[in-house]
Structures are given as structure tokens and as C-alpha cells.
Amino acid sequence: MKNDKNTMACHTTPRLDALLKILQNSKSVADIGCDHAYLSILLARADENKKIIGADIKEGPLNRARENVERFGLSGRIELRLGDGLSPLKSGEVDTIVIAGMGALVISGILNEGAAIAKKADRLVLQPMSSAHELRSFCIKTAI
Q1: Residue 3: is its pLDDT beyond 80?
Q2: Own/partner pairs, 75-78, CB within 8 angstroms, 24+ separation
Q3: Pairing state between β 51-56 and 78-82
Q4: Distance CA 22, CA 11 (A)
Q5: Which one-letter DSSP state was computed for residue 67?
């Protein structure tokens, strides 16, 4: 049986499903620390008009992301970029920035280094795997 790219299943979890629901009205999304690009793939499959950028600091995860994006036939829909934190983005390039699946200290560091870019986004979707209260405090103190 031949795999049809439109019906092939992409790895999903309750966390990814929740993010999809939160992001459904965003027009352009940057997935920072995209890893395997599952979120980017699911977003592209859910909305063909959404602009999606996946970024990662390491070539290995970005190569896996590229392989997955190609496997689902979404190379023309998802732009993948190598870079640290928010540095792969231009100011105001996306309306929503997602940083999910990392620790609060890592997310805080990314936001601190890329504060100018973070503040230009309409919305930040932050999902720390630990110390959510510390991330909340950081965002309030820095007005991010």
C-alpha cells in the first residue's frame, strides 16, 4: 500500500493538540526549537494559508525536521531555519511565536536575548516543561 502524504499520520500528543487549538487563528507562526517539526507539520496540514517558520539551534534536529517536512510534502509551506533562539526571525515577521517543550530558564533566556523580536509579535505561546511560575514572573518583570 502506497503512503498518501495527505493521509499519513503525523506524531501528535495532547500537548501538541492543545497548541494547535491555541494557534488556529494565527496567520503566521514561528516554532522556536522545532525539533522534529511535528507542530509545524500539523499547523500546515490544518491551514494551508498559514505562514510557518520552524527554527532550531542544532543542525541534527533541523535535518530531522527537514526530512519530516519533505516526507509530508510540505517543503514549500514550511520554512526551516538554523539559528539560536529568536535570531532566525526578522522583527515583525510573524504574528505568533511558539516556544514549547523547554525548561522555563531556557525559554526566559531566549526571550531575554530576543526581546526586541518577541515584543513585535502579537502573541507569544510559551509552554515550559518546568518552573512555569518562574517564566511568568520573568515575563511580567521584563514586560515581554
Answers
A1: no
A2: 77/44, 77/48, 77/52, 78/37, 78/40, 78/41, 78/44, 78/52, 78/53, 78/54
A3: parallel
A4: 18
A5: H
Whole-angstrom Cα distance, residue 19 to residue 39? 8
Distance CA 142, CA 73 (A): 40
Q: What residue type is assigned to position 66 of the chain?
A: R
104-123 pLDDT tens trace? 999 999 999 999 999 999 99
Among 126, 122, 58, 67, residue whose Cα is nearest residue 96: 122
> Maximum distance among all alpha carbons in the chain?
55
Q: For the chain, what's the residue count?
A: 144
Orientation angle between helical segments 14-23 and 38-46, nearest 10 degrees: 50
- Identify which of 55, 44, 31, 47 has the alpha carbon closest to the alpha carbon of residue 78: 44
What pLDDT was estimated at residue 1? 36
